[in-house]
Specification:
Length: 394
């Protein structure tokens, strides 16, 4: 009995050792792309691969070269451009470890369905990478900027997106299947977060950008890009992006500053619950959007008796009216300027009132533009901090 168990253990050890060696051999035989950028160059695609330099990022002695390199190729299709990369690199480039896909703005405005088709159809492309748009620029430029603190730029973009979504309401993260679902939906339009190169772009593409205490160029997470189908049609500002993420239930924690009686008070949002209710208003759909906020006072810049219950009550009412107005304006702008239902109102109508949806779905663009939306906001201040009143200088 014991001999049998021992033999099985030996077989398992041999099998897993073999698998481990195979994985190591696979890594050594191929390059790994950590970031990919797609731009349109006239009638051709320009694809940029950010490839890990295995010698520089391994635990071995450093070679003095950069931790990643970028390689570009053109083609009549994305797959052809990807294959043309083999003319410039010595090994096949794999994409299972892809962290970010950057789409150039001009490419995004023409339509991104070709990129989606390539990455959905490709068996090697996993679903955990983020997709962004190079706002006001090209994907190629974004992937060429040297970044301090994190040696691999694509990894920096990936982590910045996650951190921003966790603590900053205007930013959000979108993966390929979420984007595919929205592109193919008749009742909801997609969004993508913008990514920008700020500062001296030419310097950012050299080692000089990481050799000084102050960056001359840096990559910054931007606001939300609005899509109509698979085409980028415009950009929201910070407030509009924050409202959009609130409606989509994507806000986890953030800081919002409100000018109360002429002085800024910072409110840290700890909980934000939102709900969309559809009502039948004389045979037509009407949206009631509810937003419930619980927050803590994070900063007070003037001598306001913030511990006074009456002051807190007035501040809560002020914030409720402020957010209500901002939300109404943001929704109205998307309706009138873009005619793109990025909020998923049509999706909620189809779920809650299928018969109403049947009446409006064939002409949803126009129906969405004039859809009545009522906003109801409730705010509760949970904590005012560890000091009673603002610091006084006597």
């Amino acid at each position: 009995m014991y001999k049998k168990i021992f033999c099985i253990m030996l077989i398992n050890i041999f099998f897993f050792s073999l698998m481990g060696c195979w994985g190591k051999r696979e890594i050594n035989e191929n390059f790994q792309a950590i970031g990919i950028g797609i731009d349109k160059k006239e009638d051709h695609y320009l694809i940029t691969y950010q490839i890990i330099n295995p010698e520089e990022v391994s635990g071995k002695e450093k070679t003095g070269t950069t931790p990643v390199i970028t390689v570009e190729a053109e083609g009549a299709s994305i797959s052809e451009a990807s294959r043309r990369l083999t003319l410039k690199v010595s090994k096949k480039v794999n994409i299972p470890h892809l962290r970010v896909l950057v789409l150039g703005e001009s490419f995004a405005r023409e339509g991104i369905k070709d990129a989606l088709d390539f990455f959905i159809r490709n068996r090697d492309a996993r679903s955990n990478f983020y997709i962004v748009v190079a706002k006001g620029g090209t994907a190629s430029d974004v992937l060429k900027v040297f970044t301090p603190l994190q040696k691999i730029p694509a990894e920096k973009i990936h982590d910045s997106l996650e951190t921003a979504q966790e603590f900053w309401s205007p930013a959000t993260t979108i993966r390929k299947y979420e984007l595919l679902s929205d592109v193919g939906a008749e009742a909801k339009d997609p969004i993508l977060t913008g990514i920008l190169v700020k500062g001296k772009k030419d310097v950012g593409m050299t080692r000089r950008n990481v050799e000084t205490i102050e960056q001359e160029a840096y990559i910054e997470v931007g606001t939300i890009g609005v899509f109509k189908g698979d085409k980028l049609v415009g950009w929201l500002d910070e407030n509009e992006s924050s409202i959009t993420n609130s409606i989509l239930r994507k806000v986890k924690n953030t800081i919002r500053v409100y000018s109360y009686v002429g002085y800024p008070i910072s409110l840290e949002i700890q909980k934000l619950r939102s709900k969309i209710k559809v009502v039948n208003d004389k045979g037509k759909p009407k949206i009631i959007y509810y937003e419930d906020i619980v927050g803590d006072i994070a900063e007070v810049t003037d001598d306001i008796k913030i511990k006074d219950p009456q002051v807190i009550k007035k501040f809560e009412k002020y914030v409720e009216e402020f957010i209500k107005l901002r939300a109404e304006n943001a929704i109205k702008r998307v309706q009138q300027d873009f005619h793109a239902d990025i909020f998923g109102f049509g999706l909620e109508i189809s779920r809650q009132h299928p018969k109403l949806w049947e009446k409006v779905k064939d002409n949803w663009d126009k129906e969405f533009a004039k859809l009545p939306v009522e906003v109801i906001v409730t705010v509760r201040v949970n904590d005012t901090g560890v000091i009673i009143d603002p610091i006084e200088i006597k």
